[in-house]
Amino acid sequence: MSDFIQYFFNGLVVGCIFAIAAVGISLLYSVLRLVNFAAGDFLTLGAFITYFLSVTLELNFLLSVLVSMIAGMAISWFLELVLWRNLRRNKAGTLALFLVATGVALMLRPLIQFLFGTETRKFNIDILKTYDFFGARIPQTQLLVLIFASASILTIALFIAKARIGKDMRAYANNPGLASVSGINVDRVVIATWLISGALGSLAGVFQGLVQGQFNNAMGESLLLSFFAAVVLGTIGDAYGALAGGLLLGLIMELSQLGIFFGGVPSNYKPVVAFATLVLVLLFKPEGIFGYRARKV
Amino acid sequence: MKAKYVILASAIASALVVSALPAQAAGVDMKIGTIHPLTGGNADYGIGLTTAAEYGAEQITKAMKAAKVPGTCKIVASEDDQATPALAVEAATKLVKSNKVNAIVGPLTSGSTVSAAQSVTVPNNVVMIATAASSPTITKFADKDLLFRTYPSDAFQGKVIVAAVQKKFGKTVTLSIGARNDAFGTALANVVTNEWVKGGGDIGRKVLWNPDNATFDSEAKLLTEGSPDVWVIVDFPDTFAKVGPALVRTGAWDAKKTFFTEAMYDAAVIKTIGVDIMGGASGTAAKSIGIASDKWKKDRKAAKPATKETFVDASAYDATVLLCLAAIHGKSTKGSVISKSLRAVSGAKGGTNIPWSKLTDAVKAAAAGKNFTYQGAWTTAKFDAYGDSSGALFRVYKIAADGTLSSDDAEDVRF
């Protein structure tokens, strides 16, 4: 039983991080048809800004996280104003947008290196402390991540479902033409999407940095494929699907190592398990686990 | 008419003089590129190796001048692969296609070495000498005799680790192995497994982890299952910085019962990962079998101080010097010629011993087309049929509770 709790907990933590990062990617795709290849680097940037504020400048950790999220939002907004908006006006296609996003990622990486160096970093938080829970050992940092990530996921879900701008985003994603003529402020929707995506990217970076204990400038890009897998698994462009896809992917990867599954899948095959699941799901449900729904986002 | 004969006689005389000139006059312009991790978790090693290669190129160019051999040996570009195979391929492509290098020094890691060789250097007939790639798989890699290495194979290190564990804990205890899932980790884990079983011991768990994992807590749990008596961990600093805390959090892992490989033989690395995590552990690391390596360190520090220095820097110095000597010996910068001449200058075909401190003599011997044995600051390579350097020396090191590294020469193992 303790083994199950341990792997389940590990899976939940990984899944929450995947979910938060994936929902930002999914929102951008649903509203702007943009495959944000720079998402991983926004994650790294968020972790490094938080490190700079909380460790180098010795500011309060929570305050540092908040400032880091605001910085993520500001950078996303800035890029929307100077880059993405102009590309859309010039009728740039999905492939062109994808390539530009890749270019942004390639520019962000050396910028992060230049600003923060390449050394391995860690937050000023005890990464070795654990709590016993029915025989399982729950790390303090991961417990914190689970609590805050769960709260964030709930907030995102409620925001999209209940807030005015959330409803506008859903409407625009579902039918941009109809949304525009029905009085929805498209610019407001687009900027809100970027702001949410930027904030979530930074937050996921901090969570990932906490969970790993130590991180370097390659942290985000190494996880990008998993984030996209979560987006596809949960149905591309569906924010709720991305949340579910992320959680499911994390749980599948970690639980596959339990002895009850053919003696436990070797840990180096964790990605194989994840992507085999993705392929299987797509085979029977090509649109992802949430399927095609009229209500997107 | 008379003038015609005078001109003809002068031309013949000039031709005779030119052909009779000593072979030292033959020279080459050798362009070398380096690939090492200059950023990321392995940057300490990469920066030291790159600077050492530059030092080697400067020294051999000086020696060429002193020996009156025309030409130069230059490091034209130093690329950063962050110890990542994909980036190593990009770096090698840039060096070969854009910088038009004649040879490459590096990469540091086995994964990068195999990828760069397979995709770039071998298809383009460019010689590469890896500076710290240790995977046994490199030995029989299909490289058209273009891939060499100055660092000993893990076929040796695996035996040394097992011998060290047996000495400390006995031959019949249960050993669990944790390794990164790449060319370096899997190959060395296999060597250790085979040697340990051959010696009569039991293998508890063998856990391979993907360096890109989001977390390593599940891997840490697996590795500590069954309460093994001792662990061997094959990893690089940047990944173990994440695996280490996860192992401590299991509450079932003991650093004092753990052996690492050479990647952790660096005080700065131990400090970064955490003394509270690594204190008390042991490990094995290749040691220089070169000539007067302490003097080389002093000379290099004085001539070309590096921001980072590690135990293996001289490997890149020797690689650079050997490549230039081979080019001079073969009077060509063609890959196939350098490849053949590398054996002629490294001692594989015998000949007089010439230490690194007498580079002018080495250049003269190379220019004269003689076979000789270059005795480097890191190794006397004597490249074998596979391009591996012959012979190896390993130290068994200990990490004190405060992170200090120590080793006893009496425990060194030589092959």
- Give start-end ranges of low-pLDDT stretches of chain A: none
Question: Gap between N and C termini of chain B, in Å?
Answer: 73 Å
Radius of gyration of chain A, whole Å? 19 Å
Segments of chain B where pLDDT lies below 50 for 5+ residues? Answer: 16-25
CATH topology of chain A: ABC transporter involved in vitamin B12 uptake, BtuC
Query: What's the number of helices of chain B?
Result: 14
Return the string of H and E elements of chain A. HHHHEEHHHHHHH
Largest interface chains and counts: A-B, 39 and 36 residues
Number of domains of chain A: 1
Q: Oligomeric state of the chains?
A: heterodimer
Which strands sit side by side, in order, in the main sheet of chain A?
Answer: 1-2
- Report the strand count of chain B: 15
CATH class type of chain A: Mainly Alpha
Look at the structure and give the CATH class of the largest domain in chain B.
Answer: Alpha Beta
Strand percent estimate of chain B: 15-25%
Reported for the largest beta sheet of chain A, the result is: 2 strands, antiparallel
State the secondary-structure class of chain B.
alpha/beta
What number is the mean pLDDT of chain A? Answer: 90
Features:
heterodimer; A: mainly alpha; ABC transporter involved in vitamin B12 uptake, BtuC; two-stranded antiparallel sheet; 2 strands; 72% helix; globular; B: 415 residues; alpha/beta; Rossmann fold; 2 domains; eight-stranded mixed sheet; 19% strand
Gist of the model:
The complex is a heterodimer of chains A (297) and B (415). Chain A is mostly helical.
Description:
The complex is a heterodimer of chains A (297) and B (415). Chain A has helices at 2-32, 39-56, 61-89, 94-116, 140-162, 164-174, 176-181, 186-212, 219-233, 239-255, 270-284, and strands spanning 130-133, 136-139. By secondary structure, chain A is mostly helical. Chain A has one domain (2-284): ABC transporter involved in vitamin B12 uptake, BtuC. A two-stranded antiparallel ribbon of chain A has the order 1-2. In chain A, a hairpin with a 2-residue loop joins strand 1 (130-133) and strand 2. In chain A, helix 2 (39-56) runs parallel beside helix 4 (94-116). Chain A is globular. In chain A, 52% of the residues are buried. The mean pLDDT of chain A is 90. Chain B is an alpha/beta fold and 415 residues long. In chain B, helix 2 packs parallel to helix 12, helix 8 (237-250) crosses helix 9 and helix 12 runs parallel beside helix 14 (359-367). Chain B contains 14 helices and 15 strands. Chain B has helices spanning 2-20, 43-66, 85-98, 110-121, 154-169, 183-198, 217-224, 237-250, 267-273, 275-278, 293-303, 314-330, 335-346, 359-367; strands spanning 28-36, 71-80, 103-105, 127-130, 147-149, 174-180, 202-209, 230-234, 258-260, 282-287, 352-355, 372-375, 393-399, 405-407, 413-414. Chain B folds into two domains: 25-153 and 290-375, Rossmann fold (3-Layer(aba) Sandwich), CATH 3.40.50; 155-287 and 393-414, Rossmann fold (3-Layer(aba) Sandwich), CATH 3.40.50. In chain B, 44% of the residues lie in helices and 19% in strands. Chain A binds chain B through residues 3, 6-7, 10, 13-14, 17-18, 113, 118-120, 127-128, 130, 137, 139, 142, 208, 211-218, 222-223, 226, 250, 254, 257, 264, 266-268, 270-271, and chain B through 39-41, 43, 82, 84, 181, 207-219, 221-222, 237-238, 241-242, 245-246, 248-251, 272-273, 276-277.
